Amino acid sequence: MATKKEIIDSFESAYEGLSGWEIGRPQREIIDLELADSIHGRVLDVGCGTGENTLYLVKQGYEVIGVDIAVAAIDRARKKALNRGINALFLVHDALNLQQLGLKFDTVIDSGLFHVFSDSARLKYVVSIASVLRSGETLFMMCFSEHEPEGWGPRRITQKEILETFGEHFQIVNIRRAKFETNRSPNGVYAWLTIMTKR
After folding, report:
1. Looking at residue 184, what DSSP letter applies?
2. Residue 196 — pLDDT band, cuts 50, 70, 90?
């Protein structure tokens, strides 16, 4: 099992070049959620990477904070914001200790973070998200699904795992098939988009 430092170092290394999840635009699923008026209030983009989803939502008028544990990712996100003239807030922060932000959110977006965690870290993550999301408000979580063949990328996640991991703190509204866009698969990869509300 990799240590926390080893995991952080692996992400820092990934951002030295072009990581597989860097597509230079927001994920289509996030755009669709915004167009459907599913996102509201103060938004947390957890595991924001280099910030494309955050930057898109800020441009649409939302108050958004993007957090990521990788310094290199946040540096690139801040540079993008500066170059595009977008006033976005990006913080280097551990997703397993979100309560240290001292903030509450109405919407949380996880586009490709949950699936990197170990079994024990998953439970810490759920508690961490629950600590900053207001009761009755929504977490949108997109992760690789077990229908994506093994190869590059993170662990594959089943619907059963999602239900078992989040069920204590969240009411699952819907789990639906989705596509996670990457620069390695022109047609995207199989994913689950889970919509859940904090109990």
Report:
1. S
2. very high
Nearest to 9 by CA among 84, 94, 72, 58: 72
For residue 63, what are the contacts with CB-CB under 8 A and spacing of at least 6? 41, 42, 43
Residues 114/84, Cβ–Cβ less than 8 Å: no
Compute φ and ψ for 82, nearest 5 degrees. -65, -45
d(CA 177, CA 55): 25
CATH 3.40.50.720 fits 4-12+47-198, yes or no: no
pTM above 0.85, yes or no: yes
Instruction: Report d(CA 70, CA 48) in Å as an integer.
Output: 10
Spans of all domains in the chain: 4-12+47-198
Query: What distance lies between CA 135 and its chain's CA centroid?
Result: 20
Tracing tokens 């924001």 back to the chain, one arrives at: 48
In the sheet with 105-111, reading across from the earlier edge strand, the strands are: 89-92, 63-68, 42-46, 105-111, 133-144, 189-198, 170-180
